[in-house]
Amino acid sequence: MHSHSVVSPVSKYSALVANLDAETLSYVSDIVLSPPNSDKYHTLSQRLITQFSDSETQKIKKLLTDLQLGDEKPSHLLRKMKELSNGQLQDDFLQSLWLQRMPPHIQTVLSASSEPLDKLAIIADKVSEVVGASSTICAATTVSPPSQSSSCSVQPTMDSLARQIQELSIQVAELTRERNSSRHQRYSSDRRRSHSRSRSVNKGSGICYYHRRYKEQARKCVSPCAFVQKRVSSVIAGMAEPLKHTSRLFLLDRKSGQKFLIDSGSEICVIPPSPTMNKSPQSNFSLYAANNTKIPAYSMVRKELNLGLRRPFI
């Protein structure tokens, strides 16, 4: 008994000889009866390959002329042709050879399809199963020339299938084109709307989109914007309408949307009152406008400003 784990050349040679039948032994009897002193396994295996394997010329000849569909499925024939070609032939050429061996009704259906070769083989199998019986009857009645009235009913069926496949292909292409066009138009419209919204300023009020929508909670501002100036002018009575263009330097608090004047030389900074501040009692400290109008003050406010710098300011 030989072990299943055959490692040495001598063991592999003995196992190979033990598994050869009588007919095969007749082709290598000279080696078995008088084995060489070395490389016995290699010599025997090469003789078997030479005797029983097809040459490249024989494979190509069988691929081009000998292989026929017969009673096999179209996919089985394609598999055999691929094995013989051994990856040396391109799919287009192999598909042409394979289609030549298909019945006319299958060729009619497959000619309208652009599917890969393997999927064409699956379609051919299904068509062959559906119309196999009718195709056999047509082939058996070719002894006498058939009249037009008694011709096989398979051809109209195949023509109908071919038309349906072609119509489906056109519909799929049209739907794909419409979907891509609709997606492009929707994307372009969204971009134009976003661009217009972010840059538009209400000409009647002079307030940008962000302050018009988010009021005091706006974190962005598009210049020119009169939102901050409008709040200040509603508190300080008697002051002139603020200029929309000024050479003074302001910094914007991104948290509240308020603008603060930089390096004005003032002693205090006036902050417009909020609804919560209006409920607080007035302070004893008062301000006066240029026309001597009294401006009520409520309290001192501690604010944390986000000026877009590295740290917040108190």
UniProtKB/TrEMBL annotation:
Chain ranges of the DUF7041 domain: 3-65
A Pfam entry, by short name: DUF7041
InterPro entries recorded: DUF7041
Transmembrane domains' residue ranges: none
Domain of life per record: Eukaryota
Composition-biased stretches (Basic and acidic residues): 176-191
Region (Disordered): 176-202
Name under which the protein is recorded: DUF7041 domain-containing protein
Protein source organism: Trichonephila clavipes
